[in-house]
Please model this.
Amino acid sequence: MKELKIPLIKSGTVIDHIAAGNAVKVLRILGIPKTHSSTVSVAMNVRSRLGKKDIVKVENREIDPYEVDKIALIAPKATINIIRNYEVSEKHKVELPDEIVGITHCSNPTCVSNYNEPVESRFIVLSKDPPRIKCYYCEREPEDIAERII
Amino acid sequence: MNFRGRDIISIKDFSKEEINYILNYSKKMVSYAKGEGHIEKLKGKVLSSLFFEPSTRTRLSFESAMNRLGGRVIGFADPTATSQKKGESLSDTIRMADAYSDAIVIRHPQEGAARLAAEFADIPILNAGDGAGRHPTQCLLDLFTIITEKKKIEKQKVILLGDLKYGRTVHSLAYALSLYGAELIFVSPETLKMPKEVVNECKELGTEPHSTSNLEKAIKDADVLYATRIQKERFPDAEEYNRVVGTYKIDNHLLKNANDKLIVMHPLPRVTEIDPEVDRTHHALYFKQAFNGVPVRMALLSLVTGEKI
Model:
């Protein structure tokens, strides 16, 4: 019998197919646990048909799929499963929105968005998979998106 | 075509048709820019000129342009005499200028500063250079100079020379020249090569730029040699600067191998990259190029304030 690394949940959200090693960054983007009091389980380096992956399970909370889309920045192949009464009730693949606001810093140290101005970082999405973004202000493409998540 | 209220932040915000329109409209301004005619189209209008970084040509030509159109200019060329010194944010400074004037021209050391300014102002923002970022009015006057001298930009062989890494004018220009189908040759020291993203943009527009460090060879069949200064102020350390400064020098000896119709352009200021002996040759176009800043900026001020002649 296949061993379950983390238990099934009765209701909530399962984020599957996160590239191995990125689950903690996904949590950070989603503001978990800061904005959620639900139980959260994380499985890292889980073996699957397509190699190793990470999985995040958030109990008793259905995460808004549009809110979750921003994780496509570091996990473009992730899927979101809404669980109701132990069954997958809704499933969708994450997709980057056309614009990303306030999630990652601009890597350009002389970009105006990194100074004391009342604006959030803002990026235009150039390509969804692989994720490529361009700073709205200085027009530079950040070098390492994952490292600059706010 | 209506430009009223439009910000001039990046050349990439404009289509080729819009750029053509601005260049054609600039031609109408040449005689007024020379003081040969008199217009008062912008009488009663005020331009805020906010220069957080040093400038000679851009600031003076903007001021000249506004005055030639009958408008007036307020502002500063030295930010240490403003509330920025007390820690005021750029956004607050912009809100003030927005309340006092009809258009704002801004030069700032931080990249994206003009784009940010546009978020806080209702009146048009004209970007006069943001750090190592964009300088769209320089790009427009460069295009205006090439088209005036060569009658077309398409298929012209253009060498962009010098600091291609930090030079903001060459980034905008490489993009715009690609839009027009010019042939591009990038000549620079190895450490100051054109950034990959600029090269990719050129390719996306259908131009395949050729890179070399051999200027003597490249100059033989070029139509335009666009030289830039190695900008000491953009270098993170002095050692890197000292290694590359003086790598290229344009003098009469070099120009002996050039196409007779080659024009030499430079956004100025120059330091050592063009020998003054070149000034007296028919190749030298950089002072005329600097003058062209006035008609082009007159055209832009006239268009964005909606007071066309």
